[in-house]
Design goal:
Strand 12 and strand 13 form a beta hairpin. The protein contains 25 helices and 18 strands. By secondary structure, the protein is α/β, with parallel strands linked by helices. The strands form three sheets. A seven-stranded mixed beta sheet has the order 7-6-8-9-11-10-16, with helices on both faces. Helix content is about 40%, strand content about 15%.
Length: about 650
């Protein structure tokens, strides 16, 4: 790493010659493989943008010039070139974020890890530059996958309308988002990639002209900037220029000199320019290049020599859904699946292999996914839309006004619900149960284990007159949590001690937090506090039997991995008021904050969502109710020194 260790900022690149730049690119790839194989992270996307990132930082002067990254998972090389080379705790508490982070560096402009938004940012920054008379540049790097999102095209429409407003759009075209990029745009870009007549013509011409003294190089530059007529004759890139964007490319994104030349031309042009670079996801690392699933888009710790996982993973929530979805597909011909460019990450690979005509990848376009699902349902099918919980936020209006208003039988399956941790604030699935509470008729299931994922998915797809939601956590699914009875539609997980006339606490467990709630109950029991633990299974609407059950207890406690504002606790409190059940309620959940990246365990502890922390606070609540706990409220056994004793998750 002789060269890489000498790069403390972008301007250190200026003194390197062509051979040194190639050496640096090799060192960066070696560093990424070694570092990310230990921590996990987005390896494939970053291996593909090494030369492109070097060229960007040589041509533009960050942070004066604003270099913006769409989604940001391909910004590791950018971090390395801007002085951040300690990847030892990547995505862990106290370490580097897996995305751009303003807290880390002045070179990070936007912490944008939801796709297709960077062009809107760039449009706004370019307008600000124009109004304030600034001469610095705005450069937006966007992948071909992110260009499948409608927001990107809304922004391009506005960008192209200002012919005299400088803005450089760099399309990193590697044919992949998470999975291979699909759709009409992908086909157009593929045409540009495979039509090499224009670039071959220029290459041959360049060889001749550069041997011509004095006028050769200027003449070549003039030819390379030729207008649409010549280009359209040789290669069909007209879509972008018809929109009003100056188009440069396609360019080999792994040729630093070629990329720099294109960027220099774009920099000189006093208007919007699109630079189309062809790159290879996973380049330079054989296991990634051979991976047909996603080219090592996101990995856990691996053996760097083989690319194989260090630890074999057990069953996870995603695979449980995927297997059950396959069984449903075999049983019901009307079941179809929709994914937003994430076929493999959401567990639909097996379904797609067996039923290729019944799965629709709409690209990074969650809004379209929801409306298309409404159409499929109206046409007599039952669509299952599988997305990450955080990404359903983007389609709220369509869920409300297209699916729910029309009472369409559409099932939304939300992966990575609750605290996800390592991917940071934008990827925590902590808003879905709040924003979906306001949707009339919609029903939400929160399975606690693998058995309930299977059972509640089947219950969801049986509903044909309203939208349903099944949401589950990230990572390994724990052991089954057996119910010992039913109260209405709720599962009774732990009854109070036999003979208890009025239990102290009704503990309502939401989703994957059932084991934690059982632990809380055990800690309370050690203090002589009696409790009942129930899992409502369907958290919207509130089970009609719940108010009467609550009335038989002294206090109600809800525990959920969702934001407290408008969450399950809030809806249950409303149901108790409506039923005129005057029982105190304490809701434990995620505070309405953007949570820093770290492991799920660390983040949960930081916000007070641990059994000892909650049990301690519930003990205090019970003590305030009088009776046998009025004089003292001892700490639950084993809770001393718990770092999560902040009360943040339980503030009223």
């Amino acid at each position: 790493m002789a060269l890489l260790t000498r790069i403390n900022g972008p301007r250190d690149l200026d003194r390197l010659g062509p051979q040194q730049l190639e050496q640096l690119a090799g060192e960066i790839r070696a560093f990424l493989v070694e570092a990310v194989s230990k921590t996990g992270g987005h390896l494939g996307p970053n291996l593909g943008v090494v030369e492109l990132t070097i060229a960007l930082h040589r041509v533009f002067d960050s942070p004066v010039d604003r270099v913006l990254w769409d989604t940001g998972h391909q910004a590791y090389v950018h971090k390395l070139l801007t002085g951040r080379q300690d990847f030892s705790r990547l995505k862990s508490t106290g370490g580097l974020s897996g995305y751009p982070s303003r807290a880390e560096s002045e070179h990070d402009v936007i912490e944008n890890s939801h796709a297709s938004t960077v062009l809107g940012w760039a449009d706004g920054l370019a307008k600000a530059n124009q109004l304030r008379g600034r001469g610095d540049h705005v450069v937006a790097v966007i992948g071909d996958g992110a260009l499948t999102g409608g927001m990107a095209w809304e922004a391009l429409n506005n960008i192209a309308a200002a012919k005299d407003r400088p803005l450089v759009v760099v399309v990193n075209d590697n044919e992949w988002s998470y999975s291979p990029t699909i759709g009409g745009l992908a086909n157009h870009l593929a045409t540009l990639r495979t039509t090499d007549g224009y670039e071959q013509f220029l290459a041959r011409t360049r060889e001749v002209l550069e041997r011509t003294p004095l006028i050769g190089r200027p003449l070549y530059e003039t030819l390379h900037g030729a207008k649409k007529g010549l280009k359209d004759f040789i290669t069909p890139q007209g879509m972008f220029e018809d929109l009003g964007l100056k188009y440069l490319g396609p360019i080999d994104g792994h040729d630093i000199e070629a990329v720099e030349s294109a960027l220099q031309r774009a920099k000189r042009f006093r208007g919007p320019v699109l630079v189309h670079c062809i790159t290879e996801k996973g380049r330079g690392y054989t296991p990634a290049e051979r991976d047909e699933t996603d080219r090592f888009h996101g990995i856990g710790p691996i053996h760097p020599d083989t690319g194989l996982p260090i630890a074999a993973g057990g069953a996870d929530w995603t695979s449980v859904f995927g297997d059950e979805m396959l069984e449903l597909g075999r049983e019901r011909e009307d079941i179809v699946a929709i994914t937003a460019a994430m076929l493999h990450p959401v567990g639909l690979t097996k379904f797609a292999k067996e039923f290729p005509d019944r799965v629709y990848d709409v690209g990074i376009a969650e809004q379209h996914a929801a409306v298309s699902a409404a159409g499929l349902a109206t046409g007599g099918l039952h669509p299952v839309v599988a997305v990450y919980a955080t990404f359903l936020n983007r389609a709220f209006d369509q869920v409300l006004m297209d699916v729910a208003l029309h009472r369409c039988g559409v099932t939304f399956v939300l992966d990575r619900a609750g605290v996800t941790g390592s991917d940071g604030p934008s990827h925590n699935g902590m808003w879905d149960m709040s924003i979906l509470q306001v949707v009339p008729g919609l029903r939400i299931a929160a399975p606690r284990d693998a058995d309930q994922v299977r059972a509640q998915l089947r219950e969801a797809v049986a509903v044909e007159d309203a939208p349903t939601v099944v949401r589950y956590s990230k990572g390994a699914v724990g052991p089954a949590v057996a119910a010992v009875g039913r109260i209405g539609g709720m599962d009774l997980l732990r009854p109070p001690a036999e003979g208890t006339e009025q239990p102290d606490v009704l503990l309502i467990s939401v989703g994957a937090l059932a084991p934690m709630c059982l632990e809380i109950a055990a800690l309370l029991d050690a203090q002589g506090i009696t409790s009942t633990v129930v899992d409502p299974r369907w958290v919207k609407p509130v089970d009609p039997e719940l108010p009467a059950l609550a009335a038989r207890h002294r206090v109600v406690v809800t525990v959920e991995d969702n934001g407290r504002a408008g969450g399950v606790g809030s809806s249950i409190a409303q149901a108790l008021r409506d039923a005129e059940v005057d029982v105190p309620l304490r809701d434990f959940g995620i505070p309405q904050e953007f949570l820093p990246h770290g492991s799920r365990k660390d983040v949960m502890a930081a916000v007070g969502l641990t059994a000892p922390a909650i049990a301690r606070q519930v003990t205090g609540v019970v003590a305030t109710l009088g009776g046998r706990f009025a004089d003292e409220a001892a700490d639950p056994a084993g809770a001393e020194g718990d770092p999560a004793d902040t009360g943040r998750a339980a503030r009223d």
